[in-house]
């Protein structure tokens, strides 16, 4: 009887421990909801639920899962350039970790993840000094945490930092150290994954130098490790043959059986050698193809840069000749405008990464003045509405005026009698705001919306417009760290949204 009770007690205890383990590993409902919203590109909602999931995890002592959720929420903030909100969130996490009752080593591992998020934000902002401070802090936290995985991640993070800020020699040294450690452990797959991750990181951050450097190192490592892998496989095969021969000697002392098995193993060795040779050929072809693809990509990028410069030069060279013609003729004026638009578009594309200066500007007078400029262009009984608060906002006024005035001219042209044109300003956050231009005109067909911001898609009669107005406006918006889009939800005409981030 006592034995049965004891067995029942053990079974219940095991079941309880299993349930607790599953509870610690399982995702809570808010994290599942956040990941679902993220898959559907609903970034604001996903960010909200990741933060709620983090709060739930921390309240239950599941700190690692909480930090993982906060990393995703921070990435969604930085995706929209909301850096202040991201830093505030990470500061809040630091406070929660400090208040948690955990060993110092576990806290250090959590602090390490938070510091890594700050480092990545500073890298995106190009703040090398601040990024260096975070890297130094991460080194201290990694030593306190004491973990091989964390040390490997630190090496990888260092390499990303050095490559990001142009310290390629140091990046190569760190990456060589990491690859050497993994290669010494014969963890070739991990080295392969690390190189591919570095290449992918460079592509996401649009760093051609990082991609080129990582790719070159990756090819060199592939070439060197092929011989090591072949030697390992050969030694493993030799050991297998030796082990089999020993086993044969133990089980059967007859020479006939021993010879038969040796012959079979030799055939197997030959087959494996043939397979290795075939694999080496395939790998060589892959390497050659990748090198060729790399050259093709570099040539395409060089050609695009030359094409842009060539188009800009043509425009500049045509201007003096066209200025000698009678600009009162529609065809001549159209050519002059076209040359000027090409020159403007080329300059914007070539300086897209250069920041523009902003200054506090009164919003309501700006919007009223722009609407007054088109009053003489609209048809009869067209209502003009300005909805802008009496406030100031930091903007690059010349670009904003150009974009809004172009959109208002288009609205005046396409809005019929009795229609309505709006110009609105909306504050969307501490560092985000929008200008909205809408009309009740004929609208833009859905299949054409994707191409209205792309230059040179269609052939135009230049006397009726060259199709470069909206592409120029789009480039100006991007240069201001913003965007210009068509609102697909507006179906009674056309609504353009100019989004800016202060």
Main beta sheet strand tally, sense and closure? 5 strands, mixed
What's the overall average pLDDT, rounded? Answer: 81
Global outline: elongated
Spatial strand sequence of the major β-sheet: 2-4-5-7-6
Pairing-aware structural class of the strands and helices? Answer: alpha+beta
How many helices in DSSP terms? 17
List unreliable stretches of 5+ residues.
5-23
Strand content: 5-15%
Helical fraction equals: over 70%
What does this structure look like?
By secondary structure, the protein is of the alpha+beta class. Helices cover 71% and strands 9% of the residues. A 5-stranded mixed beta sheet has the order 2-4-5-7-6. The protein is elongated.
Which features characterize this protein?
502 residues, alpha+beta, five-stranded mixed beta sheet, two-stranded antiparallel sheet, 17 helices, 7 strands, 9% strand, elongated
